[in-house]
Write a structure and sequence with these properties.
alpha+beta; 60s Ribosomal Protein L30, Chain: A; 2 domains; 6-stranded mixed beta sheet; 22 helices; 46% helix; iron
Length: 531
């Protein structure tokens, strides 16, 4: 089943320019920081594959240091993290580990030296859209995604230790959902990871750490994980597009309405500390800001390739050019999408939807259409719930990471999300929504990820503009009764297969496509990642 929260798809709300390479990297560092047994004095970040090739242009290095300092993904101080580290007395080095086909495309090993002489090494993977996973601790393979309250315990591999740990949890009335133990060798260092149903408090960690042969116990907080507080009833669960349509039919709900009802069960709590409706209203608020700031106050991007393009497109909409070509609504949508990428490229705050590199498509298309139709905020939020459902399906059954599936996984997914959301906004049926999403994917299939200079600037901004056009045309086709002859689930499967077939040079490494042209290699401004 899809286990993601809607706000793992329409989020994180973050400082740009990349959800996987900036927000995801920062989140891995936050997890590593939480596992350190003592305050950190020095850290070495070893970057592999796409991280190694493009970290300068994506701000990955700054994001990693920010995470170790405890900054969040939306903290504008991320861009100053090196300076803040020096002020805090934190030493750090960035090492390019190069290519290792045995590792995830976005992998970093974080080697921490702590006060008192202790040390720990944590390896993490950025899965796309800001989601992360811990894959090893001190060289011992683990798998920690943080979808439930998670406890990490370091101990000796001796008889009776596991029994003592489970007894401690039982005495504290904590129910164990899963338990996994990993060890270096028989009798040596071992780690046990517990996923539990109840919240984890400091007193419980203290009790676990007091057991004989236990080095320390820590709660693992994985930012961006769903952190479900309650199971979702079967009538609101789905694993595929066909199941989503069946659930909508059985409940007589639109896709957006069903996704909202699911989110209420997934993340709502009795204390009322989290409101899905308020969270979605905040997403809409940030989207309105990100789509307009660069039009009214253009700024030069970090790499120098962007700055003012969105304003130029918006100004064309005031003359006769828009009428002859894109039309008023699509011109507005294009300018909004481009403005979002400009804000991201200046390390401004945006909503990854589903990624930072594709963040302009959903808000660009949806807000322009809402302007043209006079749609109220409640209808726009319902359409955003719809978009999150489509994005969650693609994330679960394919990928939204450019380093795994190319730009089809980013702009292609965003186009599908926007197309489906537009159909719901304009009164279409759930089946028409998925028809529109299928058409959008079909027409972006095979799109490569080739950031010039390793920066999320060009061709990323122009592809967001094309993604908006794809979404709006796909929505109009579906609403006109022109469906997709291939079912949505099969289209997503094809997308996954095409992404896997793309060579590494065309998957966000800045080694192929436009990034490998002589002009890109020899003359573009920026970080020099392609040199």
């Amino acid at each position: 089943m899809v286990t993601m929260s809607a706000f793992e798809v329409l989020g994180p709300i973050m400082v740009g320019p990349s959800s996987s390479h900036t927000a995801g990297a920062l989140r891995i560092a936050l997890v590593a920081r939480s596992l350190a047994p003592a305050p950190i004095r020095h850290v070495d970040f070893v970057l592999y594959n796409s991280f190694s090739r493009t970290h300068l242009g994506h701000g990955t290095d700054r994001a990693l240091v920010a995470g170790i300092l405890g900054l969040g993904p939306a903290d504008i101080r991320v861009r100053r993290s090196f300076e803040l580290a020096r002020e805090a007395g934190l030493g750090f080095t960035i090492t390019e580990g190069g290519r290792d086909e045995g590792l995830h495309p976005n992998t970093v090993e974080i080697r921490m030296e702590c006060e008192g002489g202790s040390s720990i090494s944590v390896t993490g993977e950025s899965l796309g859209g800001g989601r992360v996973r811990v894959s090893s601790i001190d060289g011992v393979r683990v798998s920690i995604a943080g979808d439930m309250p998670t406890i990490f315990v370091e101990h000796r591999d001796l008889p009776g230790v596991l029994a003592a740990l489970t007894r401690t949890l039982s005495t504290a009335n904590v129910n164990i959902a899963t338990m996994s133990t990993f060890r270096e060798e028989r009798g040596g260092k071992a780690y046990t990871v517990f996923e539990v149903d109840e919240p984890v408090g400091a007193r419980l960690l203290e009790l676990l750490g007091a057991n004989e042969h236990v080095e320390f116990a820590s709660q693992v907080n994985v930012p961006g994980a769903a952190g479900a507080s309650a199971p979702v009833e079967s009538g609101l669960s789905f694993a595929s597009g066909s199941q989503l349509l069946a659930a909508c039919g059985a409940r007589q709900l639109s896709i957006g309405e069903l996704m909202r009802a699911r989110e209420v069960e997934l993340t709502g709590d009795a204390a009322g500390t989290f409101s899905p409706d308020a969270a979605m209203a905040h997403v809409l608020e940030v989207m309105r800001s990100e789509t307009t700031e660069a039009i009214t106050r253009p700024k030069a991007s970090l790499g120098g390739l962007l700055g003012g393009q969105a304003a130029s497109v918006a100004s064309c909409g005031k003359g006769g050019l828009a009428g002859a070509l894109l039309g008023t609504t699509l011109t507005r949508a294009t300018a909004f999408a481009m403005a979002t990428l400009e804000r991201s490229a200046t390390m401004g705050v945006i909503v990854a939807a589903p990624t930072a590199g594709s963040a302009g498509v959903v808000p660009g298309a949806l807000l322009a259409c809402a302007e043209a139709t006079g749609a109220e905020d409640a209808a726009i939020r319902r359409a955003l719930w719809n978009a999150s459902a489509v994005g969650a399906l693609i994330s679960t059954n394919a990928t939204v990471a450019g380093a795994e599936g190319g730009c089809q996984a980013e702009v292609g997914t965003a186009s599908a999300m926007a197309a489906s959301a537009l159909v719901e906004l304009l009164g279409g049926t759930p089946a028409q929504c998925l028809d529109a999403a299928s058409l959008a994917i079909a027409n972006t299939l095979g799109l490569v990820c080739d950031p010039v200079g390793g920066m999320v600037e060009f061709p990323c901004q122009a592809r967001n503009a094309m993604g908006v056009a794809c979404a709006m045309s796909s929505a109009q086709l579906a609403l006109s009764g022109v469906g997709c002859p291939i079912p949505f689930d099969e289209v997503v499967d094809a997308m996954a297969a095409v992404g896997a077939a793309l060579p590494a040079t065309l998957r966000e490494t800045a080694e192929g496509g436009l990034a490998a042209t002589p002009t890109a290699r020899g003359g573009c401004p920026g970080c020099g990642a392609c040199a």
